[in-house]
Amino acid sequence: MREQLPAEPAADGPWNAGRRLTFAALALLCLITALTLAAGYANKARCTGPEFNEWGRSEPAYQERAYTEACYSDIQNLWVGRDIDRHVFPYVHGGIDEDGSLYGGVVEYPVLSGLLIWLGAVFVDTDAGFLAASALIMAPFGLAVAWWLGRLSGWRALLWALSPPLVLYAFHNWDLPVVACAVAAVLVVHRGGTCPRRRAVQGAVLLGAGFAFKIYPGLFVLPLALFVLTGGRDGAALPAGKRVDVRGALAVVAAAAGTAVLANLPFALAGFRGWWASFQFQSDRDVDLSTNSIWYWGSRGFADVDGFQEAMSVVSPVAMLLSFAAACLAGRWVQRRTGTYPWIQVSAAMLCGFLLLHKVHSPQYTLWLLPFFVLLRVRWGWIAAYLLADLAMGISIFRWLGESNGIGDGFTAQALMIGVWGRAALLVGLFPAFLGARSTVDEDERTAAPIADQPTRSPC
User: Fold this and answer.
1) Residues 161/148, Cβ–Cβ less than 8 Å
2) Pair 111, 264: CB distance under 8 Å
3) What is the rounded distance in angstroms from the CA atom of residue 442 to the CA atom of residue 16?
4) In this structure, is residue 448 part of a structural domain?
5) How far is CA 62 from the centre of its chain?
6) Cα(237)–Cα(198) distance, rounded to whole angstroms?
7) Roughly what angle, to the nearest 10 degrees, separates helices 111-121 and 246-270?
8) What is the pLDDT of residues 12-35, one digit of tens each?
9) Neighbours of 302 (CB within 10 A)
10) Is 45 helix (H, G, I), strand (E, B) or coil?
11) Taking phi first (over 0 means left), then psi (-120 to 50 degrees means alpha), and beta for anything else, what does residue 244 get?
12) What pLDDT sits at residue 286?
């Protein structure tokens, strides 16, 4: 048996992740989150009604109000245009036109998100009802994230429960379920039982399900597999006499891939053209104002140049892949120093690369990053700066669209540029900051789950 490591001293007072929350404290954390989610719904509901046209679209002047009052949401906006208002089951009967327009119930999201979208529309006839039903479906996922982060990182989970992005984006799009999958994977891997390999495989299943919601949790399968390959925390889960656990790493990849295939297969068989159209839509998407990425804001005036869009279809994914490789290699360097492959840190760094370099950077993607501010002990300055930059962008982008001014004109335009480029610069800095950060999850393991109580040299 290995000796129990001494508990690390509390670094942040009441924010100390090593203190597990009681049931009452977790319930309080969820209550705070519920109030924040209610504020988020009220913020978006300002755009609904008071009247509705024959398609159930809010009137008067829905689009102008959504932009100028900064209460726009994709949920309400997509009520008309994707056959959601007609209650068409997604993917089965549709496809994509030559001009890139989707039809026949196809939505531009993976299948589990499409299923949630359909469920939210089943019993309603207006965009207001659709927003309300979608909020009711997704709110439990937001509460679950709060509970799980509280279990993993203590009161630091207030960064989720009280965050401005939760007000701005909780019901902007269908992102709470995918965030829940990613956080649940971390919970299962580090709190799921006594068998390290089984925990990792179960976590991989959740990441595969997350892929079927919004793709990005699929990125975390590779660092999780490397974590298992190197024997987990301190190498304690390596099979006897082995330096690496190849079988365990392959099981992780297979579990994630199998889950993603099982989620997609029924839709692919029922309507391959419609199912494939959702992927084709994102692949063929131009770099334009709707993508809101550095590739658009850094190339304004060149977007219509011949060959630009084709070049972006290569440059963006290649740049992302290089950032993923750099994160994984850096994780290996950290593992050599500490004895543990930092899969959570590497996952956070890979997400930074994705957010920065992908040709689409929707405002609500900040929700994807928030849990890593809880799970990793990065400096508070990074967190505050990112949330401020995101707040500037999240409000000003819609106000600017409503004002239709030049990008150099007025306070709104300047706030937008501060938000866009401020976030980009912070993502560059957060990449190494995440890689070098201590995990609040590991701190709790060392204080509440002694290594001596865990199986050693046995992956199960």
Assistant:
1) no
2) yes
3) 12
4) yes
5) 28
6) 11
7) 50
8) 444 454 468 999 999 999 999 999
9) 10
10) helix
11) beta
12) 87
In a domain, 26, yes or no: yes
The answer to the question of residue 182 being in a domain is yes
Average pLDDT value for the chain: 90
Amino acid identity, position 341: Y
Query: Residue 49 corresponds to which amino acid?
Result: G
Predicted confidence at residue 288, as pLDDT, reads 85
State the CB neighbour count (10 A cutoff) for residue 425.
14
Residue type, 434: F
CB 375 within 8 A of CB 440: yes
In this structure, what token pair is assigned to residue 275? Answer: 């199912």
What pLDDT score was predicted for residue 410? Answer: 77
Buried b (16+ CB within 10 A) or exposed e, 167-183: bbbbbbbbbbbbbbbbb
Query: pLDDT-based confidence at 11, cuts 50/70/90?
Result: very low
Whose structure tokens read 């709190």? 191
Would the pLDDT of 2 be above 60? no
The greatest distance separating any two alpha carbons of the chain, rounded to the nearest whole angstrom, comes to: 72
Helix (H, G, I), strand (E, B) or coil at 2: coil
Contact 443, 190 (CB under 8 A): no
Number of structural domains (the chain) is 1
Which of 4-13, 400-409, 448-457 has maximum average pLDDT? Answer: 400-409
Place of tokens 């799921």: 192
User: Three-state SS string across 115-164, please?
Assistant: HHHHHHHCCCCCHHHHHHHHHHHHHHHHHHHHHHHHHHHHHHHHHHHCCH
Structure tokens at 54: 């024959």
Q: Which domain holds residue 351?
A: 22-453
Mean pLDDT to the nearest integer, 114-138 = 97
Q: Is the pLDDT of residue 445 over 90?
A: no
| Contact of 150 with 29, CB cutoff 8 Å | yes
Residue with token string 């992908």: 358
Q: Give me the mean pLDDT over the 101-129 stretch.
A: 95
Q: Tell me whether residue 202 is in a domain.
A: yes
358 pLDDT above the threshold of 80: yes
